[in-house]
Amino acid sequence: KPVDPSSRCIEFESLGTQVRNTRRFFVMNPTNISYKYRWECDDGTGAAVAHLAHAFKCVHKEGFVLSGKKSEMVFEYTPDSDQLLESFWRFVIPEHDISVPFILVGHVKEPRVFFDQTYCNYNSLLIDHKGVQSVKLVNREHIPFAFNFDGKTYGADADPSVVKITPSSGTVAPEGEQIISVEFTPRLEKNYNYNAVCLVKKKATRLALNIKGEGFDNHASITMEDERGSVQVQPGGPTAIDFGEVHLNEMRQKTITVTNKGKYPIEYDWQTVKNRLLTIKPPRGIVQKGEKQEVKL
């Protein structure tokens, strides 16, 4: 819409959305006669301008200015988005045929609330083992801001959960920081990738924290070999190792083979009560992926 060059401009700057911003000014009546005034909105009607009626409000649309006195005019701007808005008004004194155009301009300043880093990468973790990292939610404004993580964006209701964020809601103090702890516990052997959305009240844009990692499991095969052949060692219970009848000062040996069929190296460690009659070599070790290692008993 063309702007009348004689228009008076009233500008609003809102720190975030859903914030009521007020502008006040006075109209003087230097004459010896009181007069009635009214404010008329020139934005029109209909759905196309409904958002303007919601964003801008004239508190006192009509009234009187007494002789030799002044009257306060009040306009409010409450944005629900970060869109730049303009609203056209007229200050009218009907009995004196006076009409002064005004333009109200409202824009939103994005609050300086942000993460100091926008991702947490846990790389590879063993299934049901927990990794913990932390980020900071930083507030560089002079007022506090409330925040809340959307649990649906990172599966917060899952049982057992993969990602846990603490605290998941709260308030960041003015010129302050809030440490956010992010726990990642893979439950399956797969890649995980979440974009955890953080809603900051009065901030038009959402913050997002990317959380990624891989769950893996150990794929180890253990076999015991002796003169009778090989036996697969099954997890979950003890496996009997029978050396049979052994003469004094005679040594009998069995071979345990540890095979790594997984994607990552595995560590093993024999836990046994010390016995001078039994030796295990080596008692511990690391088996690289795709390789095997023999242990002598």
Secondary-structure blueprint:
Layout: E1 8-15, E2 21-28, E3 35-41, H1 50-55, E4 56-58, E5 62-65, E6 70-77, E7 85-93, E8 98-109, E9 113-115, E10 119-126, E11 131-139, E12 145-149, E13 163-166, E14 169-172, E15 177-184, E16 191-200, E17 207-216, E18 220-226, E19 229-232, E20 255-260, E21 266-269, E22 284-287, E23 292-296
Parallel strand pairs: 1-8, 10-17
Antiparallel strand pairs: 2-6, 3-5, 3-7, 4-6, 7-8, 9-11, 11-15, 12-14, 12-16, 13-15, 16-17, 18-19, 18-20, 20-23, 21-22
Give a nutshell description of this structure.
This protein has 297 residues and is an all-beta fold. It has one helix at 50-55, and strands spanning 8-15, 21-28, 35-41, 56-58, 62-65, 70-77, 85-93, 98-109, 113-115, 119-126, 131-139, 145-149, 163-166, 169-172, 177-184, 191-200, 207-216, 220-226, 229-232, 255-260, 266-269, 284-287, 292-296.
Word description of this protein:
- This protein has 297 residues and is mainly β.
- The protein contains one helix and 23 strands.
- It has one helix at residues 50-55; strands at 8-15, 21-28, 35-41, 56-58, 62-65, 70-77, 85-93, 98-109, 113-115, 119-126, 131-139, 145-149, 163-166, 169-172, 177-184, 191-200, 207-216, 220-226, 229-232, 255-260, 266-269, 284-287, 292-296.
- The strands form six sheets. A five-stranded mixed β-sheet has the order 1-8-7-3-5, with no helix packed on it. It has a five-stranded mixed β-sheet with strand order 10-17-16-12-14, with no helix packed on it. The protein has a four-stranded antiparallel β-sheet with strand order 9-11-15-13, with no helix packed on it.
